[in-house]
Design goal:
19% of the residues lie in helices and 30% in strands. A hairpin with a 6-residue loop joins strand 2 and strand 3. The chain folds into three domains: 130 residues, C2 domain (Immunoglobulin-like), CATH 2.60.40.150; 139 residues, Sandwich (Immunoglobulin-like), CATH 2.60.40.150; 254 residues, von Willebrand factor, type A domain (Rossmann fold), CATH 3.40.50.410. The longest helix has 15 residues. Helix 8 packs parallel to helix 9. It contains twelve helices and 28 strands. The protein is α+β, with helices and mostly antiparallel strands. The strands form seven sheets. Strands 17, 18, 21, 22, 24, 25 and 28 form a seven-stranded mixed sheet that branches. Strands 4-1-8-7 form a four-stranded antiparallel sheet.
Length: 576
């Protein structure tokens, strides 16, 4: 389906994911052939989002007579940070060369993982034990992941046009260009729109920059279609004509082959003497490589995940089914669903799997003192929980022991994470003073990035202090996700989510947009499919994290460390 040009928002247009090359090898496979070793093959299955259905994605080649195969055929997977991309690898001993798996002689084992786990593992190398045959040692399967190099390329180009058709009654034309990437199925997806140049038939558009993968998804010969329009105030833009090209043609730069005739099929069909509706010329073209999110992850950057949960009385009595904190034995409440949806994805990028978890807005035992940043673990010295399951257990335990109260103060938790978790040496100052003991740059090396997830049911009580906390946190390697649960109106939250206007405090604007707010109800699946609801939620709230991480690293001039390689990982090697 082609997006209409009116709907296209270049800032929110989803660029195809980067492509990851996964290499597979096995060690110490089960010996099943009587007179020789096994002839192994690995079959990859991917799981549909929101479903339990596995479909075959591809296979390695068969390698004869070995228990330690290093497969040459690789799997090329689109990588979306914001999705849980579940993979299953089955290993078989092949006796016949039939493509029918049921004809393969022996099942040698399987393993499950996510693409994020492979990328997030040290050096992009993950080793899993094979399982699936009770009581037998099945050996190990090893994955290495690399990003395809052309996924980091950014193209900058400039175009002009000559003698375009006159479309306006009282003037000339107000031309602009719309670029479309062609898809595998023959459809087109809009990927760039130039500015409008007013009242001219010979426009020169400003140079623009676009990721190469947005233009052609890594296929240099794939068709790029360009439409030329005359802008109209009411949105009913007049079609002048079109031409097709490819990234490979563009990359040759300015030459006679990059002068394109703009053709209007309707005009061509009606007028015998029709030649064209003008020409478009490529004036300049250059390609540069930029560091990617995967570069930082493979270089060892850890995503540190912290959770903060709203324990204010407006959530309702947890013992009642109407409460947002109600513990239903048959299904998760909205807090648990939001926490698991986001946490299940982020945990793949945090090697120690220790997650600080806080509550706010409750009276704590034994003396009923109100707290706006209490550890769910119950241990003030150690707020960490082990894994997302540990966070969920601590949350369920806290619901039984604390008294829901109020008000809904956000700033204490944001400042807690900023001050104590992000950079212990960094003394957070008020933005009015802006004099930290040491600058954030002095103590930031790109090895850590922090994501704070706040789940709340209501209106923020300390909005002014929260704005100050967000403005301060924007100078740190930190992002904040706020998920609103329940039926409340969350208008004030939109102010923190600085997509339209950057958050400010006393005239100081946040240096980056670090807050992403969404109401959970917008993602609930109508049929009640919780898995699908959680996948939709995670996809939206996590989509901005890679760009926010890159934005921070870029402003600080931090480059990713070189990716660790297998030779850097002696302790991770299995001794065969």
């Amino acid at each position: 389906m082609m997006a209409s040009i009116g709907e296209f928002d270049p800032l929110n247009n989803i660029v195809p994911a980067t492509k990851i090359e996964v290499t597979v090898s096995c060690r110490d496979l089960l010996h099943v052939d009587t007179f020789s070793k096994s002839d192994p093959v690995v079959v990859l299955y991917v799981q549909g989002i929101g479903t339990k259905e596995w479909r075959e994605f591809g296979r390695t080649e068969v390698i004869d007579n070995t228990l330690n195969p290093n497969f040459v055929r690789k799997f090329f997977l689109d990588f979306f940070f914001e999705e849980k991309q579940s993979l299953r690898f089955d290993v078989y001993n092949v006796d016949s060369r039939s493509s029918n798996i049921s004809k393969f002689k022996d099942f040698l084992g399987q393993t499950f993982c996510t693409l994020g786990e492979i990328i997030g593992s040290t050096g992009g190398r993950l080793e899993n034990s094979l399982s699936g045959i009770p009581g037998k040692k099945l050996g190990a399967i090893i994955f290495t992941a690399e990003e395809l190099s052309n996924c980091r390329d950014i193209a900058t180009m400039q175009l002009c046009a000559n003698k375009l058709d006159k479309k306006d009654f009282f003037g000339k034309s107000d031309p602009f260009l719309v670029f479309y990437r062609s898809n595998e199925d023959g459809t087109f997806t809009i990927c760039h729109k130039t500015e409008v140049v007013k009242n001219t038939l010979n426009p020169v558009w400003q140079p623009f920059t676009i990721p190469v993968r947005a233009l052609c998804n890594g296929d240099y010969d794939r068709t790029v279609k360009v439409d030329v329009y005359d802008w109209d105030r009411d949105g009913s833009h007049d079609f002048i004509g079109e031409f097709t090209t490819s990234y490979r043609d563009f990359s040759r730069g300015q030459n006679q082959f990059n002068v394109y005739e703009v053709l209007n099929p309707k005009k061509k069909g009606k007028k015998k003497k029709y030649i064209n509706s003008g020409t478009v010329t490529l004036l300049s073209f250059k390609v540069e490589s930029e560091y990617t999110f995967v570069d930082f992850i493979r270089g060892g950057t850890q995503l540190n995940f912290t959770v903060a949960i709203d324990f204010t009385a407006s959530n309702g009595d947890p013992s009642q089914p109407t409460s947002l904190h109600y513990m239903n034995p048959y299904q998760m409440n909205a807090y648990a669903m939001a926490l698991k949806a986001v946490g299940d994805i982020i945990q793949d990028y945090d090697s120690d799997k220790l997650f600080p978890a806080y509550g706010f807005g409750a009276k704590l035992p034994p003396d009923g003192k109100i707290s706006h940043a209490f550890p769910l673990s119950g241990d003030n010295e150690n707020p960490n929980c082990v894994g997302i399951e540990g966070v969920l257990e601590a949350y369920f335990q806290s619901i039984r022991t604390v008294q829901l109260y109020g008000p809904t103060n956000f700033s204490p938790v944001i400042n807690q994470v900023a001050r104590h978790t992000v950079l212990p040496e960094f003394e957070l100052s008020s933005v009015c003073v802006r004099v930290p003991l040491r600058s954030a740059q002095d103590v930031t090396d790109g090895s850590q990035y922090f994501v704070l997830l706040m789940i709340t049911d209501g209106v923020i009580s300390d909005m002014v202090q929260t704005k100050e906390a967000v403005v301060n946190a924007a100078a740190l390697p930190m992002s904040i996700i706020i998920i609103g649960v329940g039926p409340a109106e969350f208008d004030a939250m939109e102010e923190l989510d600085g997509d339209e206007v950057r958050v400010s405090f006393r005239g100081h604007f946040a240096e980056r947009d670090i807050v992403q707010f969404v109401p959970f109800r917008d993602y609930m699946d109508r049929s009640g499919n919780q898995v699908l609801s959680m996948a939709r939620l995670a996809k939206d709230v996590l989509a901005e994290i890679p760009e926010q991480l890159l934005g921070f690293m870029k402003t600080r001039g931090i480059e990713p460390r070189p990716a660790l390689t297998s030779s850097d990982l002696p302790n991770l090697h299995r001794h065969i």
